[in-house]
Amino acid sequence: MAILLYIEQRSGNTHPASLQLFTLARQLAEADGSEIHAVVVGHDIAAVAEAVTTHGAAKVHVADDPELRVYRVMPYARALCAAIEQSGATVVLLATTSMSRDLAPRVAARLGAALATDCTDITRHDGELRVKRPMYCAKCIGEVALAADRVQIISVRPNTYAAPTSLTDAAPSTTVPLAVAFTERDKRVTAVDVEPTGGTVKDVAEADVIVSGGRSLKSEENFKILYELADVLDAAVGASRAAVDAGYQPQARQVGLTGKVVNPRLYVACGIDGAIQHLAGMRGSKVIVAINTKPEAPIFGVATYGCVVDLFTLVPLLSEEFRKLNGDG
Prior knowledge:
With 329 residues, this protein is an alpha/beta fold. It folds into two domains: 2-187, HUPs (Rossmann fold, 3-Layer(aba) Sandwich), CATH 3.40.50; 209-325, TPP-binding domain (Rossmann fold, 3-Layer(aba) Sandwich). Helix content is 27%, strand content 27%. The protein contains eight helices and 17 strands. It has helices at residues 16-32, 46-52, 73-87, 98-111, 224-233, 241-245, 276-282, 311-325; strands at 2-7, 9-10, 13-14, 35-42, 59-64, 89-95, 114-119, 121-125, 128-135, 140-146, 152-156, 174-177, 209-213, 236-239, 266-270, 287-291, 305-307. The strands form four sheets. The protein has a seven-stranded parallel β-sheet, sandwiched between helices. The protein has a five-stranded parallel β-sheet with strand order 14-13-15-16-17. β2 and β3 form a beta hairpin. The longest helix is centred in the N-terminal third of the chain and has 17 residues, at 16-32. It is globular, with a radius of gyration of 21 Å. The termini are far apart.
């Protein structure tokens, strides 16, 4: 038996949440003795594959082909199916990202596999694989048992498991080329335009720390104070749907069910009242700090720490104090 980890990379940069899958895979492998394999898909990805070999996988399958230079679901699904067959995997783990939301269901349909998405807990019970996942705007947690008579494909919410440590005392993984036979149907997309999201390079979906702002910021210009705090904290900047709809921030930064579901170690909500779709998108954060002048705001119901104060007063003070702690003040 083998557990296969799909290591997502874009332009040679490995998605941090993909590496977190090693922590989960090690736990599952200890329970039943499964072998851990990984697969990297793309073009000119030798450096990515080499970096993956230090985390304890028995084999790293590498699908390196010009057809895989940028993500397209048909060629990538073909590559992942080939990796599942070559590794003999019975369990496939992916990080929950925009790519895996597109890729995992197609692969599951091709293989007739069991599929569970955006999971926050995966365990074995008497040989059966069970997963937990938030449901109904995170108002409840559903537990699902996956059929063991077929391949089990699971996507895991980022930051659910800790980042792995490199196993310096273990032998490096064996790198195995993965040959993929593409069809003309796989190549139907002939041009891809990549539009940068602008601003900070950090994506809220993968950030450990997020500073988010709501409509109370009143303008795009006022988001500058959040960017300053985010720079000090090495954080990503997020926004509520109201702030995005008002044009203060691009949709790529929107946190919530209609934006991106996040799970950081620290979430700082500035001037966000806490609409239900926003709370559902960030309530899994480990620590939540709410800054709002309305004591009755729903955000305080999920906050670890609540500050009933004007964000324009507190946020610059926080930036100043954190600079001092960092030795920059």
